[in-house]
Amino acid sequence: MSQSLALCLLALIGSALCKEFIFVNNHGQTIWVGALGNSGLQPPANGGFTLGAGAQVSVSTDDSWAGRFWGRTGCSFDGSGIGPCDTGDCGNKLECAGAGGVPPVSLAEFTLTGWGGQDFYDVSLVDGYNIGVQIQPVNKGVDPNNPYGCGVAGCTASLNPGCPEGLKVYNGAGQVVACKSSCLAYNTDQYCCRGSYGTPQTCNPNDWPVNSASYFKQNCPAAYSYAYDDTTSTYTCTDTAYRIIFW
Questions:
Q1: Angle at 19 between CA 68 and CA 144, to 5 degrees
Q2: How far apart are alpha carbons 130 and 133 in whole angstroms?
Q3: What is the pTM of this model?
Q4: Which residues, 6+ apart, have CB-to-CB distance to 220 below 8 Å?
C-alpha cells in the first residue's frame, strides 16, 4: 500500500473508501499534472503538481469522485507557482484549484462508483491532443468476454507531427505542441455534433472536410475521437487503483 493511499484510508475510516491514482511520467520531460473535479467535487492535490521525467506520484480521492486529469507541457512557474504553460494551462498557476485546462489537451476522465457500482473511465481527444496518456487498472486483468472491462484506455502515439494542417498548435518557438479537434478549430454544428447534427445518426465524421476524428481514431483506437465515439472508448472496472501514464 502506498503512503498516499494509507493516509487516505486513515482519514476516511468510517466515512468512505479511497481511490488511488498513480501518475507515471514516461514523456521524457517534466510535465505538470492538472486535475479538475466535476461540479461540486474538489480536485486532489488542489488541482495540480509537478511530475518530473521518469517520476511517479500517487494521489487519492474518495471512492465516489468524478473528474479529469491532464498533462501540461512547456510550463514556466516562479517560486509562487505562477506562470504560463504551452499546453493545458489553467490560469497561469501550478495548482489549478478548480480551473480546467485550456484545450487542446488529452484528458483522462473518471466517474467512480457509477451505474452498477462500476468505475467508468476513458481518455478523451474530443477537444484535441497535446501528449499521450494511458489509463491502466492496477492488478486487474482484462475481462476475456469484454475488452472494455478493466481494459487499457488511451493513446500512446505522438500525434502532433502528423496533425492535419489547420489543426496544429504552435508555441512561441514555432514547435507543434498540440493538435486541435475539428470542433475546437472550426466550432460549427457539423464538427461539434450540435443542432441538426446532434445525434449519433446525424453526426458522421466521414462527412467532415477536415476529419480530426479519423486521424485520432486511426492512431489511437482506445481513445475518444469525437462526441459520439462511446462504444469504442468507454471502459469500466471495479475494486482497483488506476495508473495514469504520460507518454
A1: 85
A2: 9
A3: 0.90
A4: 123, 125, 129, 154, 155, 156, 157, 159
The residues near 40 (Cβ < 8 Å, ≥ 6 apart) are none
Per DSSP, the three-state class of 90 is coil
- The verdict on whether omega for the bond into residue 104 sits within 30 degrees of 0, i.e. cis, is yes
Q: What's the start-to-end Cα distance of the chain, in Å? A: 25
152-168 average pLDDT score: 95
List C-alpha distances in Å: 179 to 99, 182, 221. Answer: 21, 9, 17
CA distances (Å), origin 102, targets 72, 85, 247: 10, 10, 19
- Summarize the confidence of residues 169-181 as an average pLDDT: 95
CB atoms within 10 A of CB 218: 11
Burial of residue 213, with CB atoms counted within 10 A of its CB: 0-12 exposed, 13-18 middle, 19 or more buried: buried
Q: Which residue(s) pair with 244 in the sheet?
A: 23, 135
In 3D space, the residue among 208, 188, 51 whose CA is nearest the CA of residue 131 turns out to be 51
Tens digits of residue pLDDT in 124-144: 999 999 999 999 999 887 788
Q: Which helix (H) or strand (E) holds 237?
A: strand 235-237
